[in-house]
Each structure stands twice: as C-alpha cells, then as structure tokens.
Amino acid sequence: MSIPPPSPVLAEKVARGERAAQAGVVANLSLALVKFITGVVGHSYALIADAIESAADVFSSLIVWGGLRISVREADESYPFGYGKAEPLAAMAVAFMLFGAAAGIAIQAVREIVTPHHAPAPFTLAVLLAVVLVKELLFRRVFRVGQAVSSTAVRADAWHHRSDALTSLAAAIGISIALAGGPGWEPADDWAALAASAVIAWNGLRTFRDAARDLMDRAPHGGIIERVSAAATAVEGVRDIHKLKVRRAGLGIYVDLDVQADPAMSLLDAHILSGKVKSAIRQALPETLGVLVHMEPDERGR
To answer: Which of 3, 110, 184, 196 has the fewest CB neighbours in a 10 Å radius?
Structure first.
C-alpha cells in the first residue's frame, strides 16, 4: 500500500494544531511566572502549585507541537505506515505529565496543611481570578482546534489548560475561605491545592484513555466510517462493500475494505475499479493516508 505525501488539507490541520500549541507555550510561560511570583510574595501555596501546573503546561504544549511535526512526516522504509502514532504518543506524554504534576502538588499540599504558615495575601485572589478567565478562554480556543483537526494531542493540551483553570479556581476558593475565616483558616488555601491535584489527575486519566484508544487503533468517531462507506458504494461498478475498517494515524486515517463487483470482470477492470474506489475515498476524506481494497466477486444473482 503506497502512501502519498500529506495532502494540503492534512498539512493545514497540522499547521493549525502547531499554532494552538505555540499559543499555549507563550500563554503558559507568562502565567507561570506571574503566578509563581505572586504566590511567593503573597504566601499562597495554592498559587505556587498553580504555577507549577502552568509550567508543566509549557512542556506539554512543546511535546504536542513536536508530536504534530513528527506525525506529518512522509512514510519511509523504516516506517512504511508513516509517523502518525507520534501524535497520540505526544498525548500520552501529556497525560503522564499531568499525573506527575498532580502527585507533586498533592504531596506538597499535605506538607503545607500540617505546617503552620501565613494566610495568603488578598491580592493573590485578584491574580487567580484573572488567570481563570485567561485559561478558560485558552482551553476553549485550543479545544475547538483539536476538534476541528481531530487531534487527540491538541485536545489533551486543551484539557491541560482547563485543568489549570480549575486549579486556579480551586485556589481562589481556598484563598477566599482563608481570608474570610481569619486566623486558623490558613490551611484552606492548601486544601484547595489538594483538591486541585485530584482534578489534574482526573484530566490526566481522561487524556491517557483517549491516547491509549488511538494507539490501539480504535475506530474513529464523527461519522468517518459512514462517509467512507458512502464514497465507496457510490462508485459505479461497486455492488457492495464489507469488512470496512478505519483507523487513525495522527491526524490522518487508513482504510481497509472488501469491494464486491461483477464476477465476470477482468483482472484489469477490477484493478481499475479498486483505483476508482481509492480516489473516491481520498476525495471524500482528504486526510486519508492510505486505502487497501480487496476485490471480491459478487456471487449473488449470477
């Protein structure tokens, strides 16, 4: 099965995913610095934990960016099916980074809970609320791109932004409780960080699950199989299709199907028909990387 160079549609999908990852790098780096400095000055470990999560977001966006660039490489002798798996592998790496961030924040939050410390400064609350707004907007933008380009890695990066927004919101709630409660309520900030770690771990599990499914060649959703079937059956000379299998490879797909045709058809005509089926599928779904057609005689009604 020959694999053509990436189509312009696929290349544009990768470019959109890369731009989303690049925006995430810039935003997260800026927010991580602001939150860390504010957390240290304002005596808020929840805000420092939030800064750590934002720093992890920087690396996750870089990983997604790299994974997308690798996934679009043309197939070669060493990787005859291309490099598409680099994209869900990048998502898997992001999931493990989320697990690590959750564990680190939880451990330090417990230490802070049992250690007396100052209450967080009121200005830290204003910073957190601004962060929540920025990260939620970033999540929605990146998630829309991930959905549009069918990228598990980009969606994973978006959920990393959402987890950052949620940890910031949890920290804001904890700081509000600590400020309103007064002396004795200082650990509320740290309990918020502990709750945020659970949210981060959950998002990591969600990301891990989606990446694992793509690595195990789960059938794609979104009506892709139906579109492939409609394109193939619409080709003149195709009597029926069956054993249709579609799997993802990064932002592209591979198709495998059996096509039933007139049993009296010559080998040459069958070869031509299979080529028309491949062309029809590629036209209907430009992200198609390869189509394997098995020609079979249709014995019905002979």
So the answer is: 184
